[in-house]
Amino acid sequence: MRDRSIVAALALLMTASLPLLWAQSSVPPEAGKIQKAPAAAHVPDFSGVWGPSGKTVNNWFPNDPRGQHPEQAPMTPWAEERFKAARPPFGANQTFEGINDPVQKYCDPPGVSRVYLYPWEFTFIQQQDVVYVLYEYTRTWRSIAMNKEHSKDPDSTWLGESVGRYEGDTLVVDTIGFNDKTWLDHLGHPHSEALHLVERFRRVDHNTLELQVTVDDPKAYTKSFTGTKVFSLSTSPMGEGICSMSETEAFQKNVIDPTTTKK
């Protein structure tokens, strides 16, 4: 009986204190103060390893995803000149002679937009203030600062400066500060340091991830454009996808050169 009396007294005490706790939690915010979003706010879950869905996409132009008519892209004269000089190993203009693809030739990073066009996997690590994206190809990773503003004058880098936010069920990643050393895609479409890239990730269902990429680069293209690629949840762990110059040179010497050299 003594134990039951103690439990009852504790229950009454807790009940009596609830109004005070509710009152404290409902105190109105001070005028002019920015209120942080509650910790329990919904955050879409992008966990898992994502791989290609099987549909070939060689570039981000919506009317020509396979890249059969790459010359129809809305390029400026500056971009047209650089595109004509490209000798890509993929797409309508593919060649294995005199390749100048910066990835194939130098093992340079493929860049943010192009990396999704390779048949390799990637995954997300979501934290409150930062989201990391880990790519199987070249073992590249990038960090996306959440709910931050861009730097006023970011350095020009391979992956740019990325900031992100959640819009409902979508992760929106806004990136500027690129160098101009990468291609947008497998076809050799260039970009300038003025590139502004927006990625929108949405989990359509448990096994499907949709990515929309919007390219805005007034130096290279007369208008912005948006392309879409779909990925599937993979059951395979990410493997080693390192770009090795020694292996690339050996492949060039033992496979490409003997099959392309005119006798």
How many structural domains in the coordinates? 1
Q: Supply the helix-strand structural class.
A: alpha+beta
Q: What Rg is obtained from the alpha carbons, in whole angstroms?
A: 25 Å
- Percent range of helical residues: 10-25%
- Mean of residue pLDDT? 85
Spatial order of the strands in the main sheet?
A: 1-2-3-4-5-6-7-8-9
Q: How much beta, percentage-wise?
A: 15-25%
End-to-end Cα distance: 103 Å
Number of helices: 4
Report the order of strands and helices: HEHHEEEEEEEEH
Number of strands: 9
Low-confidence stretches: 1-40
Sketch the major β-sheet.
Answer: 9 strands, mixed, barrel
Q: Judging from the principal axes of the Cα atoms, what is the shape?
A: globular
Short structural description:
By secondary structure, the chain is α+β, with helices and mostly antiparallel strands. It is built from four helices and nine strands.
Describe this protein's structure.
The protein has about 260 residues and is an alpha+beta fold. The protein is built from four helices and nine strands. The protein has helices at about 1-25, 75-85, 100-105, 245-260; strands at about 50, 120-125, 130-135, 140-145, 160-165, 170-175, 195-205, 210-215, 225-235. The model is unreliable at about 1-40 (pLDDT under 50).
